[in-house]
Structures are given as C-alpha cells and as structure tokens.
Amino acid sequence: MELLYRSTRGTGEPVTASRAILQGLARDGGLFVPDEIPKLDCPMEKLSGMSYQETAYEVMKLFLTDYTEEELKDCIRRAYDEKFDTEAIAPLAKVDGVYYLELFHGATIAFKDMALSILPYLMTTAAKKNGVENEIVILTATSGDTGKAALAGFADVPGTRIIVFYPKNGVSPIQERQMVTQKGENTFVVGIRGNFDDAQSGVKAIFGDRELEKELSQAGFQFSSANSINIGRLVPQIVYYVYAYAKLLEGGEIKDGETVNVTVPTGNFGNILAAYYAKLMGVPIGKLICASNDNKVLYDFFRTGAYDRNRPFILTSSPSMDILISSNLERLIYRICGADPKKDKELMQALAGEGRYEITEEMRGQLQDFCGYYASEQEAADMIAKTWRSTGYVMDTHTAVAACAHEKYAADTEDGTKTVIASTASPYKFTRSVMEAIDRERFSGMTDFELVDELYAVSGVDVPKAIEEIRIAPVRHNNVCETADMENMVRRFLGME
C-alpha cells in the first residue's frame, strides 16, 4: 500500500513521500505527516542480526513507499558508507549502566549526519521521479549542526544549491569554522545578526512568499528544506532507534520485548519525535525523556500544557538546543488533537501571534509517553566532569544535558528501566566547553585547537577527520546580514538581484 502525506494544517491534497520530500514545507506552512505510522513488519530478532544499512531499508521502505527497492537501497548505500568512521554507523557505548547511542561518527561529527547523509540522494531521486527540471535550492536555518551536515551532504550535488543561515554569535567556534570553510561551488553560508529563532522564522517567511516562488520558477529554481521540518530528515532518524534496540538485543543487554527508555537532548523536537515514531512502529520504548537546557520551553510545556516562547533567549554551551520555537512539536500537536488541521492551525497561529498556546486536558492526556527535565549550565558541566572522572568517558555538552535529565528522572521516579541516551555530537565539536568543564583553571587560556589536542590527551579518542580538516582550511564564506536582508542574500546568491 502507498503511504501518503498531508499537511498538519489541512489544505491541499495528500502527496507521495517523494513529493513531500521535494517540497519540504507544505504550501500552507504546515508540516507533512504520514496518514498513519506503519508497523514494523520484520521481527526484532531478525533485525538484531542486520547491519545499519539493512535496518535502514526495513524501516524506510515502510514510509517511502513510492521509492522502488532499487532506488531506496541505492540511496542508503551511498549515504552510509566510508563517510562514517565506524562500520556500526551508530554504535552504543555502555557507560555506568546507561547506553549512549553515539550518533556523531559521520562527516561532520553530529547526529544531523545520520539523516543529512541520505537526504540529498532521496531528494535528487525524488526530482527524477517527479519530472522536476528546476534546480533545487535548499534553504536552511541552523542552530549549529544542521548547517554543516546539510552543506556537506549537498556540496557539489548536481541540480542543487544550498543556502544556510546561522546566528552569527550563537554557535560554537568549531561549528562556525566548519560552516564558513565549506567547499562547493553550490554552497552559500550567511551569519545573521539575531538568534536561531530569527533565522528559522526568516526562512519560513521566504518559503511562504508566493511572489518569490513565481520569480524563482521563472528563473529555473525551486525551494526545498534540509531542516527537520522535511519528512526526508525525520524518517531516517527513526532508523537509529530501531537499530539501537536491535543491537541491545543482539548483545544480550535486553530480552526481546523488554522495554527501554530513551532520553534525548531536544531543541527543534525532531530527534525525540523520531523516537516516538519508532515506539508507534512497535519498538518497545517506555518513557521518552525530553531533555532541555536553560531554554526550557519544552520542559515547561510537558509540565503545564502551555507552550510559551515569551521569555529571554539564553545562549548556552549547548547551542543546538538554544531554541524557543520547536518546529517539529507541531507534528505531535497534530496527532494529539485528533489529526484536526483546524485545531492545529489555530494553535500555530496563536504561537505566531501571541507567542503562546495551551493544549486541552484531553490533549495532555495523550502525552503520557513523554516527560520533561532540564539541566542548567553548571549541572551539565558537572556531569561532563563527573562522568569523565569516574569512567574516562567524555561527552559533549548536549549529551551532558540528556545525562542530567536521565539522572533526575531516575531519582524522581525510581524507574530502573534500561535507558538509551541519544549522544548527539562529538565532544570535539565543543572542545572549550568540554575541557573547561573538566578543569577550567587549567584549560581556559588555550585556543580552540590547542584544546583539541588536550581533549585527545584526556580521552584517548582519535581527533576526528572533520576537526583536522578545518585547522588549516581557508574561510570561504564571510557573509553577515540583518534578518530583514535574508531574502536579498538569497537573491544575490541565485543571481536574481
């Protein structure tokens, strides 16, 4: 059976998976969701003996039903190859009784590689399937990791261009250097004077500009997105939660059918939503623990039922979570309001206008799978130091937030269920924050690349190729603009001024 996708805001006919991936965002501003969440049709015992690539096919074939077996397997083969520094692709590290699902072994050492390695192939295949002749312009806002992973994925891919906007002073030095040194004649990186929410709102506004859309089409272009609002980003993320459970089973860490909890450091809500979709597919996942940093808008939402972005935006050492408008939450809202597009649209309009909305008690009752916790800057730093001293394992700042959330949840509930923590970035991506957490007095005066060498000394983990490359790479992108000028920057890059 063909699985179709429709907008959370209800206008327009349902579309195939390939059309949804090509469009990125629905024309009415909503997000594409599948008409149903398919059930896994391969027993977990069989999945436990499969490679990551084989598991990816078993999961993704259920969602991307208009891709042929040959097309989908080709996309998977080209995505999950030697770009990853481990054959496992997403290995599990058991540390102090908790399982860290390491999602940072790809080309840009962050979890965004898991989906953005395959999205270019899904998208170019979709373009061929649908007879698209326009050049596809990927337009993306990033809080740090999506930008580089998308740039790396789409660099020099024929028939595409990619434009990335990031908050100029809102990412780590390593994250910024990764982006501004990006090669590829079809790449364009712009720092904006504002925060991630400003960048994300600006990108959504450009997507919604119908006059610009007409101009683009006449010039031979069409927009799509590499953000997690694109269903082609979300579906590949489901894979690693299925894979993690299967590998725990293969390793004898759990029995078939045993429930595990999942803790995810969360900003835009896509990563934890993928875990929820895995649960709906039949993976025995218990609680989904949503971990926030000091920008704890999701923590407050799960505690109160009110989503309120009217608060100070706090820059933290976990910048990929410095987000007050969690776009992917809309997909969950749509589900818990009974797939009612009018109700969803009403709530999203309230968020856009008043900056807040509140869900009904009936909707709150459908959030029992989730709980929210948060960690302060100091608590996250303490977790990095404590874990390293007791086990020798070094985690990044985002993973530390999740580890804190798990610890608080376990203390509050006395729930001893085995837990997978999504480890979303290599500590090498946030060397200053990580090393100063371990010993501020010793490391605070060093440069970022001196800290890379010190991190190698304390962890024994090889310096990733992604870091070695940017030590000497020249800066290729030094564009900065006000948020009001984002559209002009797009026009400039596309030669439409």
Structural class estimated from helices and strands: alpha/beta
For the biggest sheet, the summary is:
6 strands, mixed
Number of helices: 22
Low-confidence stretches: none
Q: Tell me the strand percentage band.
A: 15-25%
Gyration radius (Cα, Å) is: 21 Å
Instruction: Name the average pLDDT.
Output: 95
The share of residues in helices is 40-55%
Strand order of the largest sheet: 3-4-14-9-10-13
Q: Roughly how many Å apart are the termini? A: 46 Å
Strand element count: 15
Overall 3D form? globular
Give a verbal description of the structure.
It is a single chain. This protein has 497 residues and is an alpha/beta fold. The strands form four sheets. The chain has a six-stranded mixed sheet, sandwiched between helices. Helix 17 crosses helix 18 and helix 17 packs across helix 19. It is globular.
